[in-house]
Write a structure and sequence with these properties.
271 residues; alpha/beta; Rossmann fold; six-stranded mixed sheet; four-stranded antiparallel sheet; 25% strand; globular
């Protein structure tokens, strides 16, 4: 579905991805994790044609994305950013913007079919109850649902999300991640999302991509990537990796400086 082959890209400030090669299979739900500044969002921008590689190739369905017309690419790929321009339009009107890549020649208004598709997207994301509310007047959690509904209205095969749970409390995080996994399964939608929360990524994703200093440090199932030695090296902090007692998935626990000092003192006293 998505392939990055030896991709290098970056910004004028100097940060760059260096020779990234990665493949995402159809129907996968993949999480990109790593510390701040490791290249997670840059990788997503390269994969979504927001940032042109200096070298290497990004392909969707085997075709270089830079050789595809933007409107046609938008029928396959949808992107949900961390934030969106908050415009004075209703949620329904905002979701309908996702239909623009499907407009025919000389089409300027949405059709009944476009409204039906937008309505289904709002039903799936539970946006219908506030479809007539202005985007400027809804909560952060509701706005995030509207962003995803707009992306679904594009009828994509591949959905890229950049930290979709940012600024949400734990209840809204769980609700949103449950929705993303349900869409992944019910629509056979390939999903790649950047995540800060290692425990949420482990719980919901089939595979993880661990980034560090602009490179892929590890790729695999959560059990393979969530190794405490690898995580301590990448995050440069002391961590304990345990298990979720219900799901059995690996989870990470931080160790405070005070606890570390007490352990070191006890260890020194025992010698």
């Amino acid at each position: 579905m998505l392939e990055l082959e030896n991709v290098s890209c970056g910004y004028a400030g100097g940060f760059a991805l260096d020779g990234i090669s990665l493949g995402i299979k159809p129907g996968e739900l993949v999480g990109i994790v790593g510390p701040n500044g490791s290249g997670k969002t840059t990788l997503l921008r390269a994969a979504s044609r927001s940032l042109r590689p200096r070298s290497g190739t990004v392909r969707i369905h085997g075709e270089d994305i830079w050789h595809q017309r933007p409107a046609l690419l938008a029928r396959t790929l949808a992107v949900v950013s961390q934030t969106a321009d908050i415009v004075p339009m209703t949620v329904a009107e905002y979701v309908l913007l996702g239909r623009i890549p499907h407009y025919g020649h000389f089409q300027f208004l949405e059709t009944h079919a476009d409204w039906d598709i937008a309505r289904r997207a709002m039903e799936m994301t539970e946006c219908l109850p506030f479809k007539d509310h202005l985007m400027t007047a809804i909560s952060g959690g509701e706005r995030q649902l509207a962003l995803i509904a707009r992306a679904l209205a594009q009828e994509p095969k591949l959905l890229l999300l950049d930290e979709p749970t940012s600024y949400l409390d734990i209840a809204h995080q769980v609700r949103l991640l449950d929705l993303i996994r349900r869409l992944n399964r019910e629509l056979t939608l390939t999903v790649v999302m950047v995540m800060h929360d290692l425990n949420a990524a482990s719980e919901y994703c089939e595979r993880l991509v661990l980034m560090s200093h602009g490179q892929v440090r590890a790729v695999g199932e959560p059990d393979e990537v969530m190794d405490y030695q690898v995580l301590e090296e990448v995050y440069e902090t002391v961590l304990v990796v345990g298990r979720n007692s219900i799901s059995g998935r690996p989870c990470v626990f931080p160790v405070s400086e005070d606890v570390q000092k007490r352990r070191q003192s006890r260890h020194a006293a025992s010698k």
